[in-house]
Amino acid sequence: MKTASFAALLLCTRLLANDCRPCHAAIAETFAKTGMGRSITVRPSVLPATFYHRLSNRHYTIAEGRMKRHQPSPAGAEINVIEKTIDVAIGSGNHSITYATRTPQGRLLELPVSWYSQEKAYFMSPGYDKPDHFDMRREVVESCLFCHSDTPEPAAITCRRCHGDAVAHLARPGRGNIYNPKQSSEVCFQCHLETASMGIVDSMRKPGRSVFSYKPGEPLADYKLYFDRSDPPDGRFEVNHTAYRMMQSACYKKSGGKLGCVTCHDPHSARAREACGSCHQSGHTRSKATGCTGCHMAKRKAQDAIHVRMTDHWIQREPKFVDPVKENHEPYLGNLVPFYTKADELSLAVANVRVPTAASAGLYEEYLERAPDDVPTLTALGKTLIRLDRDREAEARLRRVIELDPMESSARLALAVSIGKQGDLAGALKEMKATVASDPDDSYAWLNLGLTHRELKQFPEAAAAFREAIRLQPDFPVARMALASLPAAK
To answer: Whose CA is closest to 148, among 294, 35, 284?
Structure first.
């Protein structure tokens, strides 16, 4: 989407929020104070601090709206320095806030240090507490931004995320021409249903559906399909597991669809209702401070964000758990199964692809018959064809990706590799340069640029590219070995 379109979309969002206020002033006031109403802050005010991450031996300084990373040299000098502006705060601060920077190329990159409200301190962002984390290189793509932002351009959630298009309602206010989320929890599930935060394909949008195309009130299965791990869910608890864990509850399963998110939650104010008594008449003493939830929906630490303690929505008679002391980065190698939605055989097979093979290439080809211009599938197919040494076919697929999405730098990098493998090193070098120009924070792009220069005997240029890859990713042994192997580096 072009910048002008972004601006128009933001304008429509602001108009919608303002136009709702004259009739719903009290609701607009309370909603603005909820987590959803504060989901994004542009140009946030950030507390200054220094933070040392032992596992990656990196020092971070947060000051004056910027985040700086460095490592100490043996002599004590600062090396491998990177500094980024803090342009966006993602999260309300009820539990945490993660920061992002906007690059000159228009990309939004996640920053590695987050603020955790319960501990009132900075720690590594979720998924970063390990030696080989993304540091300042991880792009916040639209599918990640969707649940935090009302539009593809970062902006806090507004009325339309739950109530949909209000044009008809604004023209003639009435109950029948605006969506009422009480009719279904799926309007909540669009953001709060996630089976796993990493390691698997937890969902797949239907052919032809863009990230921000979901319309409140339409069946969620028309928008995307969900997948889950095939092992028991008992021991898994993550930040965005509210709906997933609720669905494991006997209360939910036996309610016949009557128990949903708004049974207990008022989304306009974030107040929770005590609804258990409508079904359960109990004689035992309830806590005046926490009611039923204090015992039966315990607060616990999430496996993917150990500095956050959240309510476990799996309603249980006697919850038993042990809080994790470190993030769980164990890969899942088992099969995926459909969850909540009914996945067709082909979609399930595509979601279960682990290793690029001739069989997986065939699955991607078959899927593209449904959605010829699906960028993720075209990209996956192109990369698979490269591994199968079908480089001319890969080049054609990857060129189509760049036509559809010029910002898809991983496809552009793969395109350069496919060209180079066909013997056209000059063409590969041209694409490699275009890749680093489009995404200069991609360490792998710089590595491959250096390798291409090396093949062309352009050793000073190769050395410069390898050094930039190392600056971006200090824990990059391949780049270090490549630099050491150069004649000029000996």
So the answer is: 35
Q: How confident is the model at residue 16 (pLDDT cuts 50, 70, 90)?
A: low
The DSSP H or E segment spanning 189 is helix 186-192
- The SS3 call for residue 52 is strand
Write out pLDDT tens, residues 60-115: 999 999 999 999 999 999 999 999 999 999 999 999 999 999 999 999 999 999 99
Nearest of 411, 380, 385, 384 to residue 398 by alpha carbon = 411
Residue 323: both structure tokens together: 């809080």
| 3-class secondary structure, 95 | coil
Q: ∠ CA 271-276-278 to the nearest 5 degrees?
A: 110
pTM of the model: 0.91
Burial group, residue 7, by CB count within 10 angstroms (0-12, 13-18, 19+): exposed
Angle between helices 409-421 and 443-455 (to 10 degrees): 20
Distance CA 160, CA 158 (A): 6
CA distances from 217 to 107, 175, 264, 272, 320 (A): 31, 14, 20, 23, 36
Neighbours of 281 (CB within 10 A): 7
Burial 408-429 (b: 16+ CB within 10 A, else e): bbbbbbbbbbbbbeeeeeebbb
Look up the CATH number of domain 352-489: 1.25.40.10
Residue whose pair of structure tokens reads 């806030």 in the numeric block: 97
What is the residue extent of each domain of the chain? Answer: 3-158, 180-274+292-351, 352-489
> Which pair of tokens denotes residue 165?
């298009």
Q: List CB contacts of 67: < 8 A, sequence separation 6 or more.
A: 60, 61, 83, 84, 86, 99, 101, 111, 113, 136
pLDDT at 10 over 80: no
Q: Is the model's pLDDT at 484 over the cut of 50?
A: yes
Tell me the mean pLDDT in the region 198-219: 94
Residue 2 pLDDT > 50 = no
Tokens 């319960």 belong to 118
Instruction: Please say whether the beta carbons of 374 and 205 come within 8 A.
Output: no
Contact 108, 139 (CB under 8 A): yes
